[in-house]
Amino acid sequence: MTAATASVPTAITTTTTTTTASRRAHRDEARVRTEGEHGLLHSVGVGLSSGLLVLLLAVAVAVVALPALVGGSAMTVLTQSMEPTLPPGTLVVVKPTPADEIAVGDVVTYQIRSGEAAVVSHRVISKTYADGELTFITQGDNNTDPDPEPVRAVQIRGTVWYSFPLLGWVNSLLTGANRAVVIAVAAGGLFLYALTEAVMAARQHIGRRAAAAAVAASSAP
């Protein structure tokens, strides 16, 4: 009778221990699933922020660095005369080009009146010589007639190297030193955000591995 009485607490203790271990395992599995979902969201966030950072840096190189290397400049198209090739709001990067290297079909940016700041970008439709001087006949792609006056070589700022649609409106707002400051601040902010997300993702990855190890240990016989 004494032996039968002693076996009952042993069975109850074993059942209680098994039930507790099972609950802990389910809880750990749920935590692993939750952390996995959050980890996926953080990974997506890191990817998006990193991609945006790369895009911003690429635009900074294309708009600021490359033009500076060749002595060029970035300008904004304000009129409809070059639609659909260069609609209003397009950012054009202009590089200096010797007059004798400009060919028919090139888009040139030139001073409307020699010595003045106002410029326009139109396509060269022919080259002429007037009194031994090389001049260019230009026309906007959206215009029905050529420009009224031949363009002299001294008026030409350069040829359009490449362009970015709509980015010109941003360029118009960010002029001079403001542009470099905004680009630097934005790039720095995106870099810090991407770094923070990467650190958080790494910590969550370590946490998931620890939780998975705990689940495996609690489930072991």
From TrEMBL:
GO terms for cellular component: membrane. GO terms for molecular function: serine-type endopeptidase activity; signal peptidase activity. It is found in: Membrane. The chain crosses the membrane at residues 52-78, 180-200. Gene3D superfamilies: Umud Fragment, subunit A. Residues 1-34 are annotated as: Disordered. GO terms for biological process: signal peptide processing. InterPro entries: LexA/Signal_pep-like_sf, Peptidase_S26, Peptidase_S26B. Keywords: Membrane, Transmembrane, Transmembrane helix. Residues 1-21 have a biased composition (Low complexity). It comes from the Bacteria. SUPFAM superfamilies: LexA/Signal peptidase (SSF51306). Its EC number is 3.4.21.89. PANTHER family: SIGNAL PEPTIDASE COMPLEX CATALYTIC SUBUNIT SEC11. This is Signal peptidase I. It comes from uncultured Microbacterium sp.
